[in-house]
Amino acid sequence: MFSEKFQPSPAQVLVVGFLILILLGTILLSLPIASASGEPLSPLDALFTATSAVCVTGLVVVDTGTFFSTFGQVVIMLLIQAGGLGFMTMATLIFLVLGKKITLKGRLVIQEALNQITLSGLVRLTKSIIILTLIIEGVAALILGIRFSQDVGLLRGLYMGVFHSISAFSNAGFDIVGGGVGLTPYRDDFVVNTVIMGLFIFGGLGFTVIVDIYTRGSIKKMALHSKFVLLLTAIFLVVGFLGIFILEYDNPATLGELSFVEKIMPAFFTGATTRTAGFNTIDTGSLEAGTLFFMLLLMFIGASPASTGGGIKTTTFGVLLVAVYAIIKGGDEVNLMNRRIPYHIVLKGLSIIVIGLIVVGTVTIVLSQTENQEFMNVFFEVVSAFGTVGLSTGITSELTTFGKGIIIVVMFMGRVGPLTLALALGRRYSKSKIRYPEERVLVG
Amino acid sequence: MFSEKFQPSPAQVLVVGFLILILLGTILLSLPIASASGEPLSPLDALFTATSAVCVTGLVVVDTGTFFSTFGQVVIMLLIQAGGLGFMTMATLIFLVLGKKITLKGRLVIQEALNQITLSGLVRLTKSIIILTLIIEGVAALILGIRFSQDVGLLRGLYMGVFHSISAFSNAGFDIVGGGVGLTPYRDDFVVNTVIMGLFIFGGLGFTVIVDIYTRGSIKKMALHSKFVLLLTAIFLVVGFLGIFILEYDNPATLGELSFVEKIMPAFFTGATTRTAGFNTIDTGSLEAGTLFFMLLLMFIGASPASTGGGIKTTTFGVLLVAVYAIIKGGDEVNLMNRRIPYHIVLKGLSIIVIGLIVVGTVTIVLSQTENQEFMNVFFEVVSAFGTVGLSTGITSELTTFGKGIIIVVMFMGRVGPLTLALALGRRYSKSKIRYPEERVLVG
Ligand SMILES: [K+]
Ligand SMILES: [K+]
């Protein structure tokens, strides 16, 4: 009776699925065997870590490399893989393994998870995603493993390769280098830089784009969405690099002491990591306030849709820019690359940015009151959580219980997506039959 | 030949008119007689002050009450009146006085200036604006004059009444109390608080709303725009009051030492002044960083369209919220109070907020590098300039030459309106005849 009346929307199924994963992770990470010392993590910190892993955020209250046992680290790695690859893809895998047919309901859920446009070809897409992910992560794990082996021996090196490969492709930002210094020991290491960046940039493009690249080959034949994502990603990488390079050029705590050429790689990495990867090769806390603000804006925009990355998404911001251009030109149709973008896509993009601004603004004001921290550090932390970035000026472990609780909620909201959450809470497709008469209001 | 080919748009006429007013003001304020000491103001500071007055911003590099002679203060007062009442309304007045008929071109310019919807009734509206403004400012000047007379004598008191009445109704935020302390000596003065607030809130509603109130009487009969403005203004006043009251409750440098009841008036004033009035009864530099951020968000939203206030405007933000609500409900029509808001109004609102965010973000990052000031103070200053607010943590006079130049440009852009500027620069009504095929991109 109840089950017939209650028809959960795809978005609602997504939200509940993520919550179950987080709960499972919290229990496992609270166990004494998850801790290196045997002293178990507090339930709140376990919840924080599990949420951060499932939401591929990367904010940490304890250092992943030193606090957790191998068991704890493997749990985190699996949570990242499940959260990053998408638990819906996982669900599809289970369906396939069990040999069951996918129902229309099941397809709709996957469609929501991947933010895909058509229902057709979803099973094929899911298979492609998993195969591609495993190949990419496997190759990268091997390269990283060989590199790390030089420092820590073969077995430990390969283990580190697997962990960082999964963490990077999933844009999770968790590292097990230890000492809470992130990837700073590898700041000038070409192999680690290029492999890690390659993984998180590729993962941040979104599955549909990756599959489009894989199946179409030439850019000309790709879908509008794929071309737009590649263009925007290139622009944001260049803007990020130039911004960091210029803003930190003279900062003695970051790039100041390096030669012109030496500055290039850390500047590019720091700009690129705002695509919500969350790894850092220079100390985030040493960056200048203006640089943090610059990164914060890029972090808010984030990666591309249906990807392992977060933020409001490159295309969301891109569509709004295209709409602004249309208005400036005096037209009311939003055209991009000789194609017209539908009205409701623009409205959806608008909703995402407005909800994002409200969430980030409100939470920042509240936490600036409750946390005894510099305003900019709080602001940065909130955007980092919302964009599932994981960069921090170092205040995460110093947050109050209230602050940790709020950041947990923001990480979750940031990953599930403001709009998906809004759709899950609201009633969808309840389109009113009434068409009201038009009346203008003045804006601007 | 040239004059036939070059058809300036209404927006371009507006921009040029404002520039001429600023230039005139700069020359007058550079004269030795404009200075109380006879030592003339530097050209840059004169330009800064003239821009601040014409754009009714209120940021000052020298204290208006002590640096300027009565001549200088009267120049500023006239620049404020011209900029606030709108130089286009002034132009209309000149037309009327000269007995000339208003051409269609002239009407279009006025329409742009007031952001009005129809061409009809513009002359009547302009007359109403001027008469209403003079009555309101006159009555308020008298009340304020009597109050100030108690402190400084009759003649000086009435003069101060006129200056502050014009400055308040125009949302200019200039004061001649002296000593660079704003209206802090009148923090607990009921008359000064209510009259000043009444003036700037009323002025910030926008001329069309004021005329609508004046001619229709009942709220029910008013235009959708007027009802929306009144609703949003009420909401922002309540939110502003509650925010300041809560955030500053314990701050010993602002509300902390006051009793619960005593906190109410300064909290309300500080919340209301973010409607881009720019007056302050408590020291802005003593507010907590979180409070500054809260005020900064309200300042960015600002007052209502076609008003003396600035910001992206209450209705711009309001329309976007309504659009977000529509998307959450699953529809694609943006309905408000049983009326449908046209697509292009939503797009226009979207453009204004996106351009505003880009301008504020970019300028803040640049100035955070060039100015040797705390990041939050720079951020606050930029939003204050863009929203033509005039509140400052006290860094205005300490800005570098480059910083002052940039703030001048931002004040101008903030007043002329990002969109008007964009329209003035771009080619309008150049609608393409080509209708491209529709293709979706993923957002969010
Ligand atoms: K991340
Ligand atoms: K002002």
UniProtKB/TrEMBL annotation, chains A, B:
Signal peptide positions (record): none
Regions that span the bilayer: 12-34, 46-68, 74-98, 129-148, 190-215, 227-247, 285-303, 343-366, 402-425
GO cellular component: plasma membrane
Topology term for the membrane: Multi-pass membrane protein
Molecular-function GO terms, alphabetical: potassium:chloride symporter activity
Family matches, as Pfam families: TrkH
Major subcellular location class: membrane
Localization: Cell membrane
Keyword annotations of the record: Cell membrane, Ion transport, Membrane, Potassium, Potassium transport, Transmembrane, Transmembrane helix, Transport
PANTHER family (alphabetical): KTR SYSTEM POTASSIUM UPTAKE PROTEIN B, TRK SYSTEM POTASSIUM UPTAKE PROTEIN TRKG-RELATED
Protein name as catalogued: TrkH family potassium uptake protein
Organism: Proteinivorax hydrogeniformans
